[in-house]
Design a protein that fits this description.
2 copies of one chain form a homodimer.
Chain A (H helix, E strand, L loop, with lengths): L13 H7 L3 E4 L1 H6 L3 H6 L3 H5 L4 E4 L3 H6 L2 E5 L4 E4 L6 E4 L1 H11 L3 E3 L11 H25 L20 H10 L9 E6 L5 H14 L4 E3 L8 H12 L8 E3 L5 H10 L3 E2 L3 H7 L2 E4 L2 E4 L19 H5 L2 H9 L3 H25 L9 H6 L9
Parallel strand pairs in A: 1-2, 2-6, 6-7, 7-8, 8-9, 9-10
Antiparallel strand pairs in A: 3-4, 4-5, 11-12
Chain lengths: ~375, ~375
């Protein structure tokens, strides 16, 4: 899932995202809550209509950004008081208010409010944090169940349990053939925490499943721990998550990592890496990573990646991309981002192919979106 | 002509410029000479191939930027010594070296090296400057005639005297049907100076015509003088320029101005206004200028310009554009620039229609590009 923090994947218009075949985007609740504000988005019909994006959207709970971006945060059982990184103003997120915000934003998939345990953390701290995340998961679900029909969808959007049978193109047809909103709701996913402690991860998984969600995320990773440890925790946690529901690994990763984790059984991943790296001139290609700022590319008339068919590789040379980057031209960010997204999407396409899930035989994440998850039916 | 200073129209990829129907772009010799450098562009086949743009390109002589951007410039009869605005390094432009640079860049239309007389300037200063521009025009032409076959075009580009019969689409066909370079060259235009003195403008026009060029530009305007004076000088100068050759007014203007000057008989204009204003959130619409940063647009779900069919107006709301701008998202610059360019191109389309020059009956500028100017035939 490409990351569209503020209702925009930085540097790429929705027209191009459509063309790239992006099926789902991630938006950040913390950022959207601060700008343009949940009321603004809700009044305008929700995120889909606001940003003119008819395919799927997932919002995070805001928890991770509150922990990583805001100043002076104060965590209590009730929730988190934090100061905006923009203007220092004071705000409060609880399981209830974070869920309320996500209902107002109106993404297809929303996340329970969790505490992302810092790394390293001792055993007691990790358990306490995990226990609080479990209590917050229950409160998130309770609030969601009581308020899920407040989602701002009008006639122009169809929730994930009614859409996408066989791909994005059909989705668009299905959506446009729908003429009334028929009570479909968002899907609220639970998040497994437990730090790097495999026993706590198991307990967190089991007790989150007990609460019951249509999909499960593995949170609290990629927070500074060694890569081998990430993998160990992912593998151990996956064992306890139901195979018939989407399993979402948050904040991951490099092209190598997404292949690795997909092969372990992860269905969904999100990461700013392809887009952020692109803006810094770091490009992923079939020949490995390329830092386009290097002088060696100044006279290179060949395409960025000869095996890539994206708009960037089809038309522009490495020499031109290097010039744009060195000259700080906006077009550098645009063309680089298009390529990196294309490379990631191609990578996932290959993964689906290699595990026999392409062409109608979609992965669990896609099957989830296709409404084959009976748990989602109202 | 949209301005693509550094071989890129800031914020818009060439794919989109194609789609917008842009037929000619302007590149700045001063900027391209400094980055990526003329040798780099020449080695890679010239600007068209370098930036992957098969339609027409015009480069300025570098004179205007040398006067407006660089530090410590020193003008002599021989040329101008100046320091780069990037790193302070010292460089020298003469009529010969500026023409050499433009041959190396390989645009379709290139400009004689001139001195842009400052405003205000007294009578003697204005005459001296005009006289030097005339001597420089002769030297530019002499150098061009002796070196015009050094243009870096290979098999992939056809000069303006062989292309564009009836529009861009046919151009592309014609170009691709050409398989060898057949001796076509660039077109060197002369520039009329003379400050705000109408008698000097007349003399400059007549003596520039005597030297002989396939097209003529009016330079030295939009340098701080009142708008009424600009118009007076343009109108007076046009009288002395041949009606059967393209007449190019440099550095102009607002949508109102381009309509006004086109109606006076100007065939070509360039200005950074549509692109630069877009990046500052100033948008031109059929309902007047809009400053999209204003809070009044935060809840406005309507299109930017209901009468515009561009990608921006077709898909996104004012509320979304306002959010992107307020959040400093790159997409704001992209979508705003697409709209402003579309508005300018639509404006010129209307002008052509109103003076009966559309649909095969192109203006002089377009007819020039279509090879109907016998002066250009080798």
């Amino acid at each position: 899932m490409p990351v569209g923090t503020l209702a925009s994947v930085k540097g790429v218009s929705q027209d191009i995202l459509d063309e790239l075949g992006v099926q789902i985007l991630l938006g950040n609740t913390y950022h959207l809550y601060l700008r343009p504000g949940v009321d603004q988005v809700r009044t305008l019909g929700g995120l889909h209509r606001f940003m003119s994006w008819s395919r799927a959207i997932l919002t995070d709970s805001g928890g991770f950004q509150v922990f990583s971006l805001s100043d002076l945060r104060k965590v209590s059982e009730e929730g988190v008081t934090f100061r905006s990184h923009l203007d220092g103003s004071s705000h409060f997120f609880s399981p209830e208010s974070a869920t309320e915000a996500q209902i107002g934003l109106g993404a297809d998939i929303i996340m329970a409010f969790d505490e992302c345990t810092e790394y390293p953390a001792d055993s007691q701290r990790t358990r306490n944090s995990m226990e609080m995340t479990l209590r917050w998961a229950e409160r998130s679900k309770k609030y969601f169940e009581e308020h899920k029909h407040e989602v701002p969808w009008g006639n122009d959007h169809v929730a994930p349990d009614a859409i996408v049978r066989g791909g994005a193109a059909e989705t668009d047809e299905l959506r446009s053939s729908e003429s009334t909103w028929n009570g479909h709701t968002q899907a609220l996913f639970g998040i497994v925490q437990g730090g790097m402690d495999l026993a706590l991860r198991k307990e967190s998984a089991e007790r989150t499943i007990e609460i019951g969600f249509p999909g499960y995320a593995i949170g609290g990773l990629s927070v500074g721990e060694p890569r081998a440890l990430t993998r160990e925790v992912v593998e151990a946690t996956l064992e306890y998550l139901p195979k018939d529901k989407p399993r979402y690994l948050m904040g991951v990763g490099t092209p190598e990592e997404i292949i690795e984790y997909a092969n372990l059984g992860v269905d969904m991943m999100d990461c700013v890496l392809p887009t952020r790296a692109a803006r810094h001139g770091l490009l992923f290609t079939s020949e490995g990573k390329i830092s386009i700022k290097q002088a060696r590319y100044a006279s290179d008339g060949g395409p960025l990646d000869p095996k890539c068919g994206c708009r960037t590789c089809a038309r522009y040379s490495r020499a031109y991309l290097r010039h744009l980057y060195a000259s700080n031209e906006i077009l550098a960010q645009i063309l680089n981002t298009i390529h990196n997204l294309s490379f990631y999407l191609d990578t996932m396409q290959s993964v689906r192919h290699s595990i026999g899930l392409d062409h109608g035989e979609l992965g669990k994440g896609a099957r989830f979106l296709s409404g084959e998850q009976s748990q989602l039916k109202p």
